[in-house]
Amino acid sequence: LIILVAALTMRQWSEEQRAGTLEMLLTLPVGSVQLVLGKFLAVIALVGVALALTLPIPFTVSAIGNLDWGPVVGGYLAALLLASAYAAIGLFVSSRTDNQIVALIVSVLLCGLFYLIGTGGVIDFVGSGALADLLRALGTSSRFESIERGVIDLRDLVYYLSLTGIFLALNAYSLERKRWSRGAQTAAHRRAQSLTTWLVVGNLVLVNVWAYPLQTLRADLTSQQEFSLSSATRDLLSNLQEPLTLRAYLSEKTHPLLAPLIPQIRDMLTEYAIASNGKVQTQVIDPATDPDAEAQAAQTYGIQPTPLQVAGRFEASVINAYFDVVASYGDQNVVLNFRDLIEVAQRRDGTVDVRLRNLEYDLTRAIKKAVYGFQSLDAVFAGLESPARLQLIVTEATLPEALQSAPDTIKKVADDLAAQSGGKFTFESIDPDAPNAAITRQTLRDTYRLQPIPVSLFSADTYYFDLLLTLGDKTQAIYPAQDFSEASVRSAIEAALKRESQGFVKAIGLWTPPAAPQFDQFGQQSQSPVSYQTVQQQLSQNYNVRSVDLSGGQAPADIDVLVVIAPQNMTDKERYAIDQFLMRGGSVVVAAGNYAVTTSLGGLGLLPLENGLQEMLAHYGI
Fold first, then answer.
1. Of the four, 49, 271, 354, 518, which is 20 to 30 A from 83 by CA?
2. Which helix (H) or strand (E) segment is 387 a member of?
3. Domain 382-503, CATH
4. Are strands 425-430 and 388-394 parallel, antiparallel or unpaired?
5. How far apart are CA 273 and CA 153, in angstroms?
6. Residue whose C-alpha is closest to residue 251's, from 308, 315, 188, 194
7. Which CATH code of 3.40.50, 1.10.10, 3.10.20, 3.30.460 fits the domain covering 505-622?
8. Nearest-angstrom CA–CA distance, 285 and 301
9. CATH number of 231-374
10. Parallel, antiparallel, or unpaired: how do β-strands 544-547 and 595-600 relate?
């Protein structure tokens, strides 16, 4: 495009000067601006014809299969804007010389300079600081790539129109100077014309400075909104209380199949930065060119280069390349390595297709894990849209002696949380047996489905001792540990708050049976073939997973879901723990079977199992 536009503009003014017809044009009753616009529109019309000749290509592709017209429209628009800027530059250069060849060479060099300063190679060479951002903002190539992918950004439109306007104004000023006489009588006129021109140029530059922070004024033309983040990701980013950093460790010298994926990662990181309104900082680093960054990647994040085999026509070699992304939030770091980011599929012709798996999903998952690991209670309260209300339902007259001190402990913890919350947490104690009580026993039974507890086995008296946490229109019951210590009460309340807060990863408690000893054919103990590490690893990709022990008769209060894998001969206490977890509103997933696989000299066998949950599951209709 640079060569085409430079060739079209090289003789527009230089030929007029060489042939002596420029003086005649300047004597006509036509302003310099009109002359410049006429030449400019003529060049753009020719470029438009050249682009129109390529239209059968996308129409043919669309007729054969499904074509996303967003990038197509963006590509043609970007080409026209780029041609407009280059045409304005070429016309200005042509007005400054009467030699067509000189005009061609200077135009190519000047347009090429604008293109090169925005390329990835130059930006990577200068680093990731303010200079890199300046070059990216000034370069025509970086702006072109942004529009070409199907995203119309107001800042890119302003940039191209401003660049075109600046050089058209300079072109008109250059022609106007040829009309001036050098006498003292025209000095005021010359100063006014010069001042007007430079004011126009300055204002066009300032418009770009003003538009630079307007990152959200953009339109995604792609059919699947490929460059727009989902609402779930936007909600997560809007709830960030601390700065988040996304670092991409990407080697410039990498496998040819990975090279096309690097711009996609850059673009996605930019989308996160834009959607976060400044809360997300992004960095793209090539550790191969930065020893300090390479040391940080290895020591802080445990990132090592991946050896990749590259086969050429006459030789094969192995290169060590980086292809990792790190999400850092506070003191938490989550690493997405080479295998987390890509998927490989084989085409019908036997070649390999390498593509990003689901970049937004992977990045958002990593951010959620980092945020959950760092979130403090202050961040929980700050993220609440409405105040949380904790209610202690207690019948003081019939409360057993063992629980007499528990209400005071709960009140102390609740008062501490209320003081810490900044008005986002309130506490009240309600006796349903008191006159004019806000909540009665009937309300507890009908609304909250809470049943009274007998004081003793042979007593007719009953009591209530329940904690209810209300957030918005949701109410959940809280059951601290049986000792009702301050630590257990606080842990149970915080866990309940986090379960209802946005931006938190759910916690899963995983119960697996103890590994039974296995013996080989020689009577030696061997490792059990049954392993549940794969289950835990898969769940850990999206949730916080911890192993739990139910032998004490109670499930941890800070888990959201209890997953029971392959239960075998569960004890009464373990069944009681599951039942109580369900009673307080928890969710239980049971993966059970009637047989277990065993190994013997004859091969594999099936052993009937008694999981111990049949009666309880039947009670729930399972």
1. 271
2. none
3. 3.40.30.10
4. parallel
5. 15
6. 308
7. 3.40.50
8. 14
9. 3.40.30.10
10. unpaired
